[in-house]
Specification:
Immunoglobulin-like, globular, alpha+beta, four-stranded antiparallel β-sheet
């Protein structure tokens, strides 16, 4: 009986120890849009794995699911589950800027992952890789220019007490 207790106690210690190592860092991400005309843009932020496939959706700017199919590549990933386990916020207009908070797993830094920002505007273009950022500590310190509706993205790490 004592042996079973010791094994269970060891298993709990290992379990809690592993959970303590899985840490995330919070980042503020400012998205500055180009001064385009037309409807507000939807922007999806995804975690891309080292193989180039979608791993997780981190944020969706735009809450109306009827427009999600405008993200042709991302929608293939989303369509498998029909669940959006990410934070959502308002769409964003031309020339506007917004701040979003992203929780990023520290264990994924410098492991070949990327953050992809896709943008789409109704009756206009879809930019599958408007901004792609390697998930590295250095890349998350600065400003990255966009190629479509996004003018640039700027990150700052939130220092936690």
């Amino acid at each position: 009986m004592m042996r079973i207790f010791k094994i269970c106690a060891l298993a709990l210690i290992l379990c809690f120890g592993l959970q303590a190592n899985a840490q995330t860092s919070k980042y503020k991400c400012m998205v500055q849009m180009n001064g385009y005309s037309g409807e507000k843009a939807y922007v999806v932020v995804s975690l891309i794995n080292p193989s180039g496939a979608y791993d997780k959706t981190l944020y969706m700017m735009g809450k109306d699911t009827k427009w999600y199919n405008g993200f042709k590549e991302w929608f293939k990933f989303f369509n498998k589950t029909k669940k959006l386990n990410a934070k959502t916020g308002a769409s964003i207009g031309g020339g506007d800027r917004t701040l979003v908070n992203l929780d990023l797993d520290d264990a994924l830094l410098n492991k070949g992952y990327k953050l992809r920002f896709e943008s789409s505007v109704e009756a206009q273009n879809y930019h599958v890789s408007d901004v792609e950022i390697p998930l590295t500590a250095d890349a998350l310190k600065g400003k990255v220019d966009g190629k479509g509706y996004i003018q640039y993205i700027r990150f700052s790490k939130v220092v936690q007490p």
